Amino acid sequence: MPHKVENFLESDAFFVAVLHCAREMLSIYRESPRIASILAAQQRWLMAHAGFALHFGYPGEPKLGLYSGRFIAFVVANKIASRNTAAAFIQEMRAYRFLRPVESTSDKRTRLLEPTETAHEHFFRWLTTHLLILDSLDGANRLDRFNADPSAFSKLQPLISKAIIDSDAVRDPGATYNLFNWANSGGLIMDYLMSRIGNFDRTSDRAYIGPLSLKEIRDQFMISNTHLKRLLTQASEMGSVGWTQPPYKGDTWLSRGFVMEYWGYQAAKFAVVDAAAEAVLGPAARKAASALISSAVP
Predict the structure, then answer these.
(1) CA dihedral over 260, 23, 190, 244, signed as positive or negative
(2) DSSP, res 66
(3) Shared domain check, 132 and 30
(4) Are both 80 and 167 inside the same structural domain?
(5) Contact yes or no for 129/31 (Cβ under 8 A)
(6) Distance of CA 12 to CAs 28, 136, 292, 294, Å?
(7) For residue 79, is it left (φ>0), alpha (ψ between -120 and 50) or beta?
(8) Does pLDDT of 179 surpass 70?
(9) Beta-carbon contacts of residue 147 (< 8 Å; ≥ 6 apart)
(10) Looking at residues 155-161, what average pLDDT do you find?
C-alpha cells in the first residue's frame, strides 16, 4: 500500500529526505538552468506536466497527442493559466527546442508536438530523484524496477500529472508557499532557503538558516534585485521570513508555519508519486515495512 500523506507529515526522517530533494533540484538547475527554470514556478510546472501527460495519454481521455489547441483548452479548463499564457508557453517551449513538431501524422489538419530528448531527460531525472528518495525511506526497490521497464516513464508521468492537477494540497499548500512558487524563480529560491535548514524542531517557532547573500541568490537564480527584495519583503510582512538584524542582515530565519507549508506540499507530492509508482510498478517490496518512515516520529 502506498504511503499516506499523514505518514510523511509525522516523519522527521521524511523531512530530512525532502531537504536532500531540494538540494538535488538545485543541482539539476545548475546543470540546466534554462529548462529547470520551467519548473521554478507553479504555473509553468503544472503546464509542463500537462504537456507531457497529453503527449503520453492523459488518464480518462479517449485520445493521446499534444497539439497547441488541445493544450490551451486543457490548461484553461483546469484553471492552470489563461489562454494567452498557455499559448505563449507552447511557443517558448518550441523556441527553446523543448518541443518539436512530429514529422509524420495521419491527421494533416492537426500538427502534433512532442517533447525533445532534452525535455525527456530532465523530467526523467526529476522522477528518478523522487523514486530514489522514496526507496531511501523504506528500503524498497522502485527505482530499480522503474529503470528495468522502458515503458514505465510514459505510464507513470500521466498518473502523476493528473493527481497533481487534481490535488488542492499540491496546488495550494499555503499562502507563503504560494507567494514563492507563483513568482518567477520563486520556487528555486524557496528550495534554496529550505535546503539551508540543518535540524528542524517542529515545536520551535523559527528555523535559523544563517546569513544570506542577496547577491549570491540574484546571480544564481537570475533574478533582479528589485524582484528578490519584493519577494522577501512580502514574506517578511507575512511573518514567514525574517532576520536577526533587519533588513536582510544577521541570521535569517524561516517561520515554523512556512516550513510546515513546504513540508505539507512535499508530503502531498511524494504521496502522489508513490501511489503512481505502485499502480505502474506494483507494490513496493519494502525491506523494513514502514520502519524508516516511522522511526523518527517524536
Answers:
(1) positive
(2) B
(3) yes
(4) yes
(5) no
(6) 25, 14, 10, 8
(7) left
(8) yes
(9) 128
(10) 97
Banded pLDDT at 295 (limits 50, 70, 90): very low
Determine contact, residues 71/54, Cβ cutoff 8 Å.
Answer: yes
Same domain, 199 and 141: no
Helix (H, G, I), strand (E, B) or coil at 32: coil
Q: What domain count does the chain have?
A: 2
pLDDT tens-digit readout, 192-215:
999 999 888 889 999 999 999 999
Angle subtended at Cα 130 by Cα 128 and Cα 136, rounded to the nearest 5 degrees: 100
Specify the 3-state DSSP secondary structure of 139.
coil
Bridge partners for 208 per DSSP: 253
Both 254 and 157 in one domain: the answer is no
Strands 206-210 and 241-245: unpaired
Q: Based on the domain organization, do 14 and 63 belong to the same domain?
A: yes
Instruction: List, for residues 225-243, the tens digit of each pLDDT value.
Output: 999 999 999 999 999 999 9
> How does DSSP classify residue 186?
H
292 is a domain residue: no
User: DSSP string spanning 249-295?
Assistant: EEEEEEEHHHHHHHHHHHHHHHHHHHHHHHHHH-S---TTTTHHHHT
Pull the grid cell for residue 84.
494567452
What secondary structure letter does DSSP report for 210?
E
Mean pLDDT for the chain overall: 90
Distance CA 46, CA 41 (A): 9
Q: Are residues 192 and 230 in the same domain?
A: yes
pTM attached to this predicted model: 0.92
**What domain range includes position 67?**
5-103+111-171+267-281
